[in-house]
Amino acid sequence: MSFTSEEIDAFFDPVLTEDALLFSAGAGSKIIKVFFDNDYQGVNMFTGEVESAGPQAQAKTSDVVGVAHGDTLEIRGITYYIKGIKPDATGITNLVLSKDA
Predict the structure, then answer these.
(1) Which of 34, 52, 39 is nearest to 95 (CA)?
(2) Contact 99, 80 (CB under 8 A)
(3) Which one, of 99, 75, 89, 98, lies nearest residue 21 by Cα?
(4) Which fold does the domain 5-98 belong to in CATH?
(5) What tens digit of pLDDT does each residue of 67-79 get?
(6) What is the pTM (predicted TM-score) of this model?
(7) What's the Cα-to-Cα distance from 73 to each of 1, 17, 65, rounded to whole Å?
(8) Cα dist from 72 to 25, 37, 83, whole Å
(9) What is the mean pLDDT of the chain?
(10) What phi and psi, each to the nearest 5 degrees, are found at residue 10?
């Protein structure tokens, strides 16, 4: 199920999102609205299980057309490299981020 552009615009309300500066050869350099999440990463040393969410940003798919691995997002003054690009077929794309190039 995809959402209309009006529904996605309402979802990305400026009160709920934050600005991210996108640097991309394919998508251009621009400020986009994102939901930013910098989740917990943990390792259970007894079982070897690894939990890893890491930094992620959800953006409008229309804002990130042409984005590629290695492009950067600057959020809260920190530069993150885009490591994964996961469109969800609803008009929203999850960007998996890393501080490492």
Answers:
(1) 34
(2) yes
(3) 75
(4) Thrombin, subunit H (2.40.10)
(5) 999 999 999 999 9
(6) 0.85
(7) 27, 14, 14
(8) 10, 16, 9
(9) 91
(10) -65, -40
Residues 88 and 84: their CA atoms lie apart, in Å, by 13
pLDDT in tens, 46-55: 877 766 668 9
Q: Which of 56, 74, 60 shows the shortest CA–CA distance to 10? A: 60
Please calculate the CA angle 68-36-21 and round it to the nearest 5 degrees: 55
Residue 43 token pair: 């390792």
Only one residue has tokens 């309402």, namely 10
Q: Where are the beta strands (DSSP E) in 1-101?
A: 18-23, 30-38, 41-43, 50-52, 55-60, 72-75, 78-87, 92-98
The DSSP secondary-structure symbol of 99 reads S
